[in-house]
Structure formats: C-alpha cells, structure tokens
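Hi W.,

Here's what went into the run:
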Amino acid sequence: MKFRGKMTDIMCIKQFTVVVNTVARLAKVCTLRITPQKVFFIINDAGAVGSSPGLWAELDQGHFFNEFNMEGVSEENNEIYLELQPDKLSRTLNSLKSSQSARSVKIKLTRKHSPCLTLEAELPSLSVHARLVVHDVPVQLIPRRQWHLYHEPEMPQFQASVYLPPLRQLKHVIERMKTLSPYVSLSANRRGTLVVGVTTDTVKVSTHFRHLPMPVWEGQEDSMESAPEELHTATVDIKKFALFLHGEQGGPTKVICNIVEDRTIHMFLINDDVTLQYFLPAATNT
Amino acid sequence: MKCVIPGINIKVFGRAIHSLAKIGEELYVEPSSKGVAFRTVNSSRSAFASYTFSSGFFSQYDDGSLNQEKDAGEETVKCKVAMKACLNVFKSLATLERTVERCKITLDGEEDKLGIQLNCRHGINKTYNLSFIECETLQAVFDRESCPNYIQSQSRVLSDAVLNFQLNQDEVTLCVSPEKIIIRNYVEDEPDPAKAIHTVLTLEAGEFDRYNITGEGEVTFCLKEFRAVLTFAEPVNLPVTCHFSNPGSPIIFTVDNRPMFEGTFVLATLAEKSDSQISRSQSTSKQTAQTTHTPKTVPRIRSSSQTSINRSQNSTFDNMRSEQSTLRRSDQIGEVSSRLFEKRASLSSAHNSSALQTSSQSSLENKPILPSSPLRLARASTTNGNTSHINMSMREMTLPDLNGDEGEREEEDIPGTPPAKRAKKFIFQRCFESTFNPEDVPGHDRVLAEDSDEGF
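Here's what came out:
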C-alpha cells in the first residue's frame, strides 16, 4: 500500500486546507479514501440518514497534486481507506499556512511509530537554506471488509431544489435565529423561493429569499408539474446548519439545496475541482 | 527609587512586563545604582526571567541610595508585587504607545507602595499604587560562559520555527549537530505516543547569525516560556542568543540591547532518560562522582527516580542506609535526587570499599571547578553577606557543602523531580512477568481469528 502526493501550487494548498478545515468542523473522525483519480473525505456519522454518509467531499487529484502516486491493497481493489482525526490534519495544515505559506507540501502514507500521514513541507526561509518541517499525523487503516460502509450517497428524491443565496448572507441570518430556537425550518418551492424560519411559543421569524435560480435536474421535470407554489419544508438542527455555513467553504461557485420534505436537507457545494455533499437529517421532535 | 521612562521607550517596557507575565505571578523589582531589574520566576521554579533596564533607558533615574545616606548601610528597597496588578497598568500596548508621554515609577519604602504614574496626552495623569512585599534578591545561579554551545539568530527565524508547533504543545526538544538544528515536539509516554502528532523541523546552520555547536546533543525545554522570549524579541527585532550545555542543565536565552536594556531567560531542561543514567552509574566510581555533579534540573518532569526504584529493588538497601548515615545527616532523607546520589555512591562502594570516600572527596574537589552550573535560585540577603540557596534543581550540588557551612542547608526543602510516569508501569507490571512465557498458555496455537488481509 503506497500513497504519495505533492502539492506545489499555493492556491491548491490553501484550497486543500479549506476542505480539511470544513471537515474538521463537522466531525471528530473522518475517513480519507484515496483512489487513483480522486481523494475523498467522508464523514459517516454526522448526519447519517440510513447508511449514507453525512458528508462526502470529492477532490480531483489532478488539480491538487502535481505528483501523485498510489498503490492500493491489490490490483482489483486499487484504493486506500484511512481513518483519521481531521482536527489534527487541519491544525497541521494551518500551521503551515500561518507561518509563511509553504513552498510545497508532500503528503505520504508512512509507517513510523504507527501508520501515519506524513506531511513534509518546505518552508521559505530568510536565507538560501531550505527549511524542512515534517509532521506525522497518526491514522488508522480501514480493512477491506469495512469498505462497503463508505459508498457514495445516492441522490435523494427531493421535492424542491434551489441554489442557495450567498452563504455569508445566509450565515448572518442563521446566526440571529440561533439565539431564538434550536431548530430551523427550510422551505422551498419550485418558483425559486426559499424561506428560512424559526418558530417558538412567542415568536415566529422567517426570512424570504425570492427568485433564486433553480438547477435543472434530468428526469425530474414530470414530477415538477404539480403545484409549483407549494412549499416543501424540512426542519433541522440549527447548530449543525450554522456549523456548516460557518466555514468559507473556499468560496464555492454554486451551492444547491435539495429538500426532501420532513426527511433531509441535502446540500451540494460545487467548485471547479471539489464537490462537497452534506446531508442534514430533519429533526424529529420539533 | 525613582525613574522616568520616556514615551518612546514605554512600549518596550510594556512588552517586557507582558513577557514576564507569561512566566511568573510575582514581579520582583530590584533597583541598583546601574539600573532596575525586573524579574520573575514561575511557580514550579523551572523558569526564571529577568530584564535589566540601565539608567540610559530612563530619562531620569535615581536609585534612591542618596536619600538613604542618613541611615547608612541600609540598601535600596527590593520588593515584589503581584504580576496581574502590574500587567493591568501596561495592558494595551497600542494605547500606551499612542497616549503616554512619560511614565514615572517610584518605589517608596516608607509607604510600601510601588507607584506608577502615566503622564498621558491632554494632561491626563493615571496613577497606580501597587502594594508590595519587601523581599530579598531573586537570582538564578547560572553561568552562561561555561556553556559549550551557543547559537544566535534573528528572533524571526525562531518564531517562525515555533509557529509550526501546536499551541497545546508543552515541550520541545532541540537536537543540535555541527551542521543543523532539529526541533522536535516532545511527546510524553502517556497517553499513547502513537496517537500524537510528531513534528520535526530542520534548520540549517546557515540560518543562524552565530553558530557554535561543539558536538551533537539535545535538550528539552518548555515551549511556553520560550514563546515568552520570542514575544518580546520579535517586535523589538533583536537577535536571540541561546546558551546551553547538556540535558538537565539550564538553557539560557538572552536578548541584548545594552547599554539600554538586557533580557535573560533561564529555563530548566529535561534530564536525560533514566536508562542512560543507569549505564553511567554502573561505570567506575570516579565517573559516578562526576555524574552526580552534572545537574539534573528537572522541573515537574521525569528523571532519575526510576533509577532509584531499580536500585532499591536489586540490592543492599540496608547496607546503603548504614553507609549513608555515616556520610550524611538524616535531614535530607526522602529527597528523591539525593537518594539517587546515595545509591550511586553506595553502588560504587560495592565495587570498591573505599570508593565512597573517594567519590565524596572528588566531589569536593570538583566543586570549585564547576561553581555554578546548576540553575539555582539564590535568595541572597546582602546585609549579612550570607547567601542561602534555594535550588530548583538538584540536591547533589549542595551535597559537598555538607562538610562545610552548616547554616547553608537551613533552607526550605523543595522536592526534587516528581517520580516518572514510567515508574507506574514498573510498579504495576505483572509480578510473574519474568517467568511468563506465552507459549505455555494452553491453546496458544489455536487461531480464533484470521489475520486481516490488509497488510501495510
């Protein structure tokens, strides 16, 4: 089993850090899946609906890594699954960012005192000498018989789908609502309306976004015909939602929000080379 | 004592107070004819910091010795104040720099007050009166010149290096060789070191302004205090000089801007691991005496106690006791590191019956040669000229004094190194460990679960 990747572009290192930071905010433990084409970060427990993961982040290796070598368990199973604490990885990556931006970062799978993800960074120094820093982040290997737990989630059968307004705007709205209620309701219809609201015994607050663009999904047109004005609602834990909005998420180009009535909110962040899916289960006791 | 800090220097002074506040809870103020020293020591007495501001730093300086000529012989007031109280005065450095035109510090022995008066712009005067406790001089005993290794670097280089370590990291190890310096985070044995992040940073010798490393070696010290040095040195853009010798003896950081001011930080370092001590103590008696001379300064960290447990296990405890009573008085029994000395000494006596005598004599002879290598905090009361030492390090250094001045040992007993965490493992290990053979367990060859296929 081998893995070795090298990032030299500062923008890529930053973007990678942002993804890891996002993952670290959402869960204590995550899974890193490495395939010859892509690198995945998977969180299984955060918003588990059935067996599907709470977070599924997909990174195109060709974009991030200038050099990329991997060798899986066997030829037919050419993949590596690792379990790691994203917090540790993100702190390490942040230390690279905070000093001065590293010239290059090499990520390797090594066996030292334990299996480790070794980050070798070349830091700029005041003189001509290279300054090398090596961080060993402990990881655990996930045996093959557990791989089936980390399947790509299926697209849920949603009733409404809209592009979210800029996340920063939404974050401010949610921050205010967080002080009122532990749950937030997201409602959307097929006319591009999104209503974000909280309801308590004393007050009902809602923010309405109108004329949001809507993504076009293939094979969904027929079911979309009936009652386009009808709002479909799912109520979720406001803290989890706020946590998700908190990170800058690397300024995604598009964020799609799919609502499965009373079941799930499925958020889809699309960047050029990263896609991130986040599932928030509806709260049951509202 | 009365001094006035001009507005241009107030920020540097404030920074010094800030960095001292990161170490200790009490601020010692000690005026002398040349300048004022501000010092502190941390609660475990493993770190000592001192800033000396010479009279050139102030626009006006009077150490107060002139006024006190009437009652001749009395020296200037030395005192300590609560660090928190003092820090509050200099809390916001940015505001200080912007508003304060001058700062007057007075030490009034009659009213027991340390007065700090900030003359701000627009005629605003802020006066702080801090109550103090009169005390003796706080002085760490260390000798920079005797350290074989020193490096000097721009503070930027070191603070960039330190940034690579996690904020909750306690200690770092500095591994030096003539070509390069490696800084590693120090990972304790508990909890599982395999679950911790290991960080290794390499700095080439060429990055340093001055680099004098005689051989390979490593010292481990606290990162928090080291950060305190750098928070002062980096903004004022002064190089940091670092002197050290071997593990267990202090590492000394200096920020030198004489004749204006000078900052010195003395940090204890971790003593060598016990196994090396065992091997050393098993060598000849002459070496034993020298070994005990090497200061094992260990603040709240592991050290030699495991050795002592080992020793007491495998032999002649009673024998040792009797010998020890002839050698020493009982007032220091129970002190871990001194016990180590006894045991080593008696161990060597097992080799050679007269060796004990020899070793203690050679320690005496060695004493003037190595006068002040350990990090000892001396509270010297200059009135009677007698210096009483409170050593934060090891008892071994004071041992040779036993035959000498009786009064010197009448001091509060500061316990040595707490027992190593590893000792627990030693104590609680299985009693049948030595005879245990997994092959003897019935059914050891029956495989209940196959090996997983994921080799690594």
